[in-house]
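Supplementary Data S3. Sequence and structure tokens for construct A.
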Amino acid sequence: MINITCYSPQRQFFELENVDEVSDMLPDKNNLVWMDLQDPTPEELDLVRDEFHFHPLAMEDAAASHMRPKINEYDGFYFVVFYSVSVHGHKKHHIHLRELSMFMGGNYLVTIHKLPVPELEGARHRWAQNLEEIDRGIGILLYSLMDAMVDNYFPVLDTLAEKLEKLEDTIYEENSDGNIGDLLAVKRDLLRLRRVLAPERDVLNVLTRRDSPIFNRRTLEYFQDIYDHILRITEAIDNFRDLASSALEARLSVSSNNLNKVMRTMTAATIILMTDALIAGIYGMNFVNIPELHWEYGYFGSLALMLVISIGLLIFFKKRGWF
């Protein structure tokens, strides 16, 4: 599916139905073209390559999946890989990453993605607003799109932080060993975010260079704002990862302590039963010369002896905290 949104000083915003008409818009640098392709076919990718004359290596990266966020500078255009992040799942709250490949030239932006990217629709409205208030260059469209994507990182991080806080509250509760898996899941999601944000920070470093042939100085200030947001989110992720690691270590320590308590209790119970078994074993031997063997009250006396020793050992172990 291909959507083409154009802007010209005469017609303002309008849609193009035919890809071939793009070549008529591009020669005039006052015209701006945004072409969006969702789950494109190989034929559509070939059509875009021929229309914009993109480098084969860039087209190869755009057709691939699970690319690392990056920015490559080619003759006349930039190729950028960025990620949209969202949370899905009512109980597990796992994060979901959507890859977005972007080609940006002097007056055009081509976005390619396999999965729907919710921020694209909001970026259209931001573009129309920022175009009048900030600048009429294509860089404002890229800023509007990236800013919308980065803004959605904050609620995702808040969701993970809230889940981590709830797990921390249950660390010292009994029967909470199942939370270890949830803590590991939060750590894994934070790591996935970190792996995306770290290279995206490098992307913004390149876009904020003063020698960019596409952006003017005023536009660079807005990309610096996105860079500051990513830097803040990255620092927050690092803090939450440390908290998750500490919570996991605390949970494992509590589990180990509980296991030690169970082992002490079982050891104490074993000692008491072994003592009783020792008395029963002695009087169960088949020797004739056992003094109490023919005693009238020997059975009850041995039971009383077992009871007294067991109670004594129970009191001893209880004072030591083994029960």
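Construct B, processed identically:
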Amino acid sequence: MKKILHPFFVLGFALVILYELLSCHSLPAKVALDVAKAPFKNLSDYNFFVGPLKALIPNDRVLPYDLNTPLFTDYAFKERFVYVPEGKSAEYDTSEVLKLPVGSCLIKNFYYPQDFNKPEAERRILETRLLVHRQNGWEALEYTWNEEQTEATLNNIGGIKTVSWKHYDGSVKTTDYIIPTKNQCKGCHWYNNAIRPIGPKIRNLNKEFSYSDGKENQLVRWHKMGFISQLPTLAACPKTPDWEDSIHFSLNERARAYLDMNCGHCHNPKGPAYTSGLYLNWENQELANLGICKTPVAAGKATGGRLFDIVPGKPEESILLYRMKSEDPGVRMPELGKNMLHSEGISLIEKWIAAMSAKSCTK
């Protein structure tokens, strides 16, 4: 005689099996960013990433991105991500940085591979910077990683970390990497009396990116994700030159792109250095404001005895290049985010000034 199982026993057994299956294949928690609440102490609390934190595997609606010409920060590599809440988007706008909606977050991770020729191998992440769009504007947050690479914690006072790596040429380089304070973040992100992002402009994003499911133009992907609305054809979208691409872009285009990203966020009519009259942003077309035969407003010893920001055909007489080549904290430019000379960038600007039609500047 067969034993008949009670229906409630069968139901209970089925629920146990279902629970086990869901436990093994549970979905990651959603992004936990709440712009009405104080910042989390730990980076992991936001759920921007899934799996081991150091792997930086993005969660749903967290999209990796890159820029045509990135900012130089002592040769640090960067992994950038953007989060935009469901149902919100930025309007297509080429006049300035994209106006990402409240609730959005830009996530920038700074790291050094042990070997620059093997960037996908072992690496050390030093910091993660967040720009959070709250109801009253953007807030800059700094998270510093521990030595175990398991967590990054909120840090308002900055710090210094010594880091070493094998450079492209095989040499071993070491630097004291400077982690900015909360107030120092304003030094670069201050625009028209408020904090705002720098990188995510249409012209900076207009490039292909290798996503986990294949290559695609970033603007197209952002539009598909709903991050940008009303996207025209790519041919109608502006594009910042890649300063390292000498095949597709002229020397002038590459130099202007480099100066725009590394200097233009301060040196523009609404930036922290607006009183200098030296405007190195991409949009500026006035030669005087670009520094051509322009005397500095108040540079003091930072001029190195030179009289003009740029002397066409004479890089050795140009204050701009002198300050780029200086390691003196009171002279060097940019003031923040730079503890090492960027030899490749210096070479580019030197060639750019040398290629200008030589002329003598007079006061």
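DSSP finds eight helices and 16 strands in the chain. The chain has a mean pLDDT of 90.
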